[in-house]
Amino acid sequence: MVIGGYTGKILIIDLSHSLYQIDIIDEATLRKYLGGSSLAVKLLAEMKWENDPFDSAIDMVITTGPITGTSAPCSGRYVVATKSPLTGTWGEAHASGFWGPEL
Predict the structure, then answer these.
(1) DSSP state string for 37-102
(2) CA 53 → CA 11, 38, 50, 64, 71, distances in Å?
(3) Spatial contact of 21 and 73, defined as CB atoms under 8 Å apart
(4) pLDDT by residue for the chain (103 residues), tens digit each?
(5) How far apart are CA 48 and CA 69, in angstroms?
(6) Are the C-beta atoms of 81 and 92 separated by less than 8 Å?
């Protein structure tokens, strides 16, 4: 399944145990959350918020939007989201370049 700029898949990587798995994300979720920050919120909703932001078990999400990698202007964007060490709540960073489309 390919919807817009999406492949319909999520790559989950466990760096502590050198494991990975590929999950399928349904079309309804992609349409509802669109990508970037909103999709990151959805994916991190089950995060263990009691964990310290510097804990190696903390969850982090890197997402792109539906036009990332297309010929649309400024479409090389991506979002990195996790628990902020400064506030202890939501934290995210946005960037652009070649990495988002390559992802």
Answers:
(1) HHHHHHHHTT--TTS-TTSTT--EEEEE-TTTTSSSTT--EEEEEEE-TTTSSEEEEEEESSHHHH
(2) 21, 20, 9, 22, 36
(3) no
(4) 456 567 788 888 888 889 999 999 888 888 888 888 999 999 888 788 888 889 888 889 998 888 888 888 888 889 999 999 999 889 999 999 888 888 8
(5) 32
(6) yes
